[in-house]
From TrEMBL:
Residue ranges constituting the FAD/NAD(P)-binding domain according to the UniProt record: 11-309
Alphabetized InterPro entries for the sequence: FAD/NAD-bd_sf, FAD/NAD-binding_dom, Sulphide_quinone_reductase
Coiled-coil residue windows: none
Protein name in the entry: Pyridine nucleotide-disulfide oxidoreductase
Organism (species): Arthrobacter bussei
Family matches, as Pfam families: Pyr_redox_2
Molecular function per GO: FAD binding; sulfide:quinone oxidoreductase activity
Gene3D superfamilies from the UniProt entry: FAD/NAD(P)-binding domain
Length: 404
């Protein structure tokens, strides 16, 4: 770790050692880029897609975590520190410790931020005994405990508006909990309410058809175009607002499973990197090439990038390949020609052994892995096995090493 005041230089410096940063570093090494460093403050690496399974009782918490030192590709320099600013003029990243690191090329991928305090009472409700969420590692096992112990009452699930990491993931613990309650014979005694900010459940016909069938099967009450306005944690009520009519509704809950509004990391919003007019503070990039249009030494991908796709690990897996190829080309004095195809995906876990697998482009038009074959979008056991069993292995062993 560089000490305070020490100055260092790297050919490629990456801010954020999450899904995007580590897999990109691994891929760049494979492409023989020798001097790659990653700035990452956390000593543990989290595989977020498993959080939904932890909250829904189909995974243990330990499965989603590894030591950061164990996932950092050999040959990459890990700087355990936090970026606090980027000076585009002097090609320098400032760190919380006081160090400054210069770069030839900078890749900015510090992810997205959970804004728990942006809704009155929400943070307090999550800290209290009746709140849980799959959007925080610590709150996911708590959510499962609340679901597991419940025999009757009302459970409210919320999915926020605005940018989100894999926004459909808000619904996954709900389907898993409903399946659990049905198997326990108590589903009829539990009222399940879901508030989604959108006018439909997802926005793609075939996926909406599958999810609506499960919603009917489980007897879930969906409030469309509805947002969480506030929570009263001591009275255990939520206030929901229908954004189409302006009407508000107060619902008493026994358990609240909430997903927070999300935005770009606070420090990033005040740098030169977001687009003029800000666009939520995410890093401005050419959505095809993934290079900053005003600062050619800067690149971005993953949840922190202002790309057009729905943010997900599936999307950034494609982005990693494109960015690595383009950066390699530029380092060799060539033009960057690889283009991101706007693919994204969200595997909706709809029961303890089935998934509805949505694959789509930036306009939510279907983009199936096998072109012309939309069968994976139907509820299937095969896609559950792929998502729950195979994908975590692929993530730890191949994706993070830049090999998939
Ligand atoms: C509950 C949940 C379920 C999901 N399910 C799926 C799914 O089923 N399928 C799918 O494809 N995607 C899913 N996703 C989305 C996927 O996990 C994200 O898209 C992906 O992790 C984004 O990768 P990233 O590297 O951009 O951000 P992250 O993986 O969040 O990594 C960002 C890293 O940057 C670090 N960092 C933050 N600030 C700084 C700083 N100032 N300086 C240096 N480092 C910093 C953080 O510590 C972190 O390690 C899910 C997400 C969530 C939350």
């Amino acid at each position: 770790m560089p000490t305070a005041g020490e100055k260092r230089h790297h050919q490629v410096l990456i801010i954020g050692g999450g899904n995007a940063g580590v897999s990109l570093a691994g891929r760049l090494l494979r492409y023989h880029v020798k001097d790659v460093a990653v700035v990452e403050p956390r000593s543990r690496h989290l595989y977020q897609p498993l959080f939904s399974h932890i909250a829904g009782g189909t995974a243990d918490a330990f499965e989603a975590v590894r030591l950061q030192s164990a996932v950092m590709p050999k040959g990459v320099v890990w700087i355990q520190d936090k970026a606090t600013d980027v000076s585009t003029g002097s090609s320098t990243v400032l760190l919380e410790s006081g160090s400054a690191i210069t770069y030839d090329h900078l890749v900015v991928c510090p992810g997205i931020q959970n804004d728990w305090t942006s809704i009155p009472g929400l943070k307090e409700a999550m800290e209290g005994p009746y709140g849980g969420s799959n959007y925080e590692y610590e709150l996911a096992p708590k959510a499962w405990k609340l679901f597991k112990d419940l025999k009757r009452g009302t459970v409210v699930f919320t999915q926020p508006p605005g940018p989100a990491s894999c926004d459909g993931a808000a619904q996954k613990p709900m389907y898993l909990a409903c399946d659990h309650w049905r198997r326990q014979g108590v589903l009829g005694d539990i009222r399940v309410v879901l508030a989604v900010s959108t006018p439909t459940i997802f926005g793609m016909d075939i996926i909406d058809e599958e999810l609506n069938r499960k919603i009917d099967e489980y007897g879930i009450e969906v409030r469309y175009s509805t947002e969480l306005a506030s929570v009263d944690p001591s009275g255990r009520t939520v206030e929901l607002t229908d954004t189409a009519t302006g009407a508000s509704e107060t619902i008493a809950y026994d358990v609240l499973h909430a997903v927070p509004p999300q935005s770009a990391p606070e420090w990033l919003k005040t740098t030169d990197l977001p687009a003029p007019g800000n666009h939520g503070g995410f890093v401005e990039v050419d959505p095809l090439i993934l290079r900053h249009p005003r600062f050619p030494a800067i690149w971005s991908l993953g949840d922190a990038a202002c790309t057009l796709n729905s943010k997900s690990g599936a999307a950034l897996r494609m982005q990693t390949k494109v960015l690595a190829k383009n950066l390699k080309a530029v380092l060799k004095g060539k033009k960057p020609t690889a283009q991101y195809n706007q693919y994204s995906a969200c595997p909706f876990v709809v029961s303890k052994n089935t998934v509805v697998f949505s694959e789509f482009d930036d306009k939510y038009a279907p983009m199936p892995t096998v072109p012309g074959w939309d069968n994976l979008a139907r509820e299937r056991r095969l896609t559950f096995i792929a998502e729950r069993v195979l994908l975590p292995k692929v993530y730890w062993n191949l994706i993070l090493r830049g090999r998939a």
